[in-house]
Write a structure and sequence with these properties.
The chain is built from two helices and five strands. It is α+β, with helices and mostly antiparallel strands. The chain has a three-stranded antiparallel sheet, with no helix packed on it. The longest helix has 8 residues. The radius of gyration is 15 Å and the shape is globular.
């Protein structure tokens, strides 16, 4: 998957301060939308686009995997975003 600029992007997350690219690999900036849902739920949303090869695997029935780099699993949600328009 490749990151995409999410509609309404209002923040860019960068690599953690202690990130060691040699040890941990490349950490790309991540455009996100910070918002509050239902007047009380803090939410961070990002957009991801499958590569052509990943899209072929998804269309063949492969699942989407969510990986959390942590020892605990926070509440998460996966959904399909809106179809992009030519206006961007």
């Amino acid at each position: 998957m490749e990151t995409a600029r999410i509609s309404g992007c209002n923040k860019v997350m960068e690599a953690p301060k202690d990130w060691d690219e040699e040890r941990d690999g490349k950490c790309m900036d991540l455009p996100i939308r910070v918002e509050v849902l239902n007047n009380s739920l803090p939410s961070l949303s990002s957009a991801w686009m499958p590569t052509a090869e990943e899209l072929a695997r998804l269309n063949a029935g492969a699942p989407v995997h969510l990986r959390i780099i942590s020892t605990t699993h926070p509440p998460v949600m996966l959904e399909v975003g809106e179809v992009p328009t030519d206006a961007g």
